């Protein structure tokens, strides 16, 4: 006999069991038809305060659309409102589907995909339990095939976000390791260790989420706890921190199978100079910073940062709240 699930026992979103191969097939098909722009990236390993950090040059990013604030809002195309068959991997969530999985048109690594809400919801509003449960269900679906996913979310003007329709991004970790010579792993996985957090130039808040079983309400409780800490770091403890609607700060969220992390953001990045002190670009960082990755969109920036990696460290020092543990 069917039983009615209690609030705590709400069903986890149903996902196809073969998610990794579904994503891989959709990605190969859409690269072949040029619906997805993917050019092989160049990657190098830097060491930032003894943390292995990858610098990835992704030519696809040069053609990525700018946020609506710097274009004409009326002309702004929302790719997540009604994804084309070429871009859609699968709708999912309890009926009617609450979310879509779609390919990222400007993939930074192969099989870079996106979890977007089916109906429009603002990117700047706080995430809901079903967004977090859906993201964790994807992590879990990969884990069943012994594969890891890194999930990130950019929210607010200083976070590196460009699309106003709510979406989280997902990167297969084995593809993030492609081309790397040397030891590197997703930074977020180690962020529950205060020693690792203490090495970063910016404040980050993290919790272990193993054992929550992907329960959306539990994940949201942890998310709000981390969000509160991030708000307090930016606004001070006296502020009235709201848990619904528009977020009060810019931030990035990261999620892996064991960790959730939130970094409050104050700037998107900083200028990059060549060895003669000439400005050659701007290093803009989004939630991939919590994987221990910086994405570069031009060859001049790529060359300048490899010649002088300390510039990456300096930009990291500017993107968030200076780390008190490090000072
Ligand atoms: P964000 O910049 O964090 O708001 O993330 C938006 C993501 O959407 C970026 O990673 C873009 O590469 C991706 N994107 C932009 N246009 C499209 C599109 N037409 N179809 C699919 N993904 C897109």
TrEMBL record:
What Pfam families has UniProt attached to this entry?
Answer: Ap4A_phos_N, ATP_transf
**What's the protein name?**
5',5'''-P-1,P-4-tetraphosphate phosphorylase
This chain's source organism reads: Podospora comata
Gene3D superfamilies, A to Z: 3.30.428.70
Question: Where in this chain does the record put each ATP adenylyltransferase C-terminal domain?
Answer: 199-322
Q: Tell me which positions the record assigns to the signal sequence.
A: none
Q: Which ranges form a coiled coil?
A: none
Annotated Ap4A phosphorylase 1/2 N-terminal domain ranges read 17-177
Domain of life according to the entry: Eukaryota
């Amino acid at each position: 006999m069917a039983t009615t699930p209690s609030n705590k026992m709400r069903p986890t979103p149903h996902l196809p069991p073969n998610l990794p191969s579904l994503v891989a097939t959709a990605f190969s098909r859409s690269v072949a038809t040029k619906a997805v722009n993917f050019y092989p990236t160049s990657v190098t390993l830097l060491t930032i305060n003894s943390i292995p950090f990858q610098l990835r040059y992704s030519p696809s990013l040069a053609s990525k659309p700018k946020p609506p604030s710097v274009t004409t809002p009326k002309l702004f195309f929302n790719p997540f409102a009604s994804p084309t068959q070429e871009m859609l991997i699968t709708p999912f969530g309890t009926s009617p589907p609450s979310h879509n999985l779609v390919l990222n048109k400007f993939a930074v690594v192969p099989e870079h995909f996106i979890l977007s809400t089916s109906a429009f919801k603002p990117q700047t509003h706080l995430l809901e339990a079903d967004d977090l449960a859906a993201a964790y269900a994807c992590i879990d679906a990969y884990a069943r095939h012994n594969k890891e996913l890194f999930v990130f979310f950019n929210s607010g003007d200083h976070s590196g976000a460009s699309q106003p329709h709510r979406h989280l991004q997902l990167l297969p970790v084995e593809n993030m390791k492609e081309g790397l010579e040397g030891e590197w792993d997703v930074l977020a996985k180690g962020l529950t260790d205060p020693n690792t957090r203490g090495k970063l130039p910016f404040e980050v808040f993290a919790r272990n989420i193993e054992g929550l079983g992907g329960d959306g309400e539990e994940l949201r409780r942890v998310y709000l706890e981390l969000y509160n800490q991030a708000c307090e770091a930016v606004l001070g403890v006296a502020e009235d921190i709201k848990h619904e609607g528009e977020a009060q700060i810019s931030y990035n969220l990261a999620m892996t199978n064991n960790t959730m992390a939130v970094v409050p953001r104050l700037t998107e990045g900083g200028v990059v100079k060549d060895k003669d002190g000439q400005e050659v670009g701007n290093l803009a960082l989004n939630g991939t910073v919590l994987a221990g990755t910086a994405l570069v969109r031009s060859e001049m920036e790529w060359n300048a940062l490899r010649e002088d990696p300390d510039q990456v460290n300096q930009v990291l020092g500017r993107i968030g709240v200076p780390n008190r543990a490090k000072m």
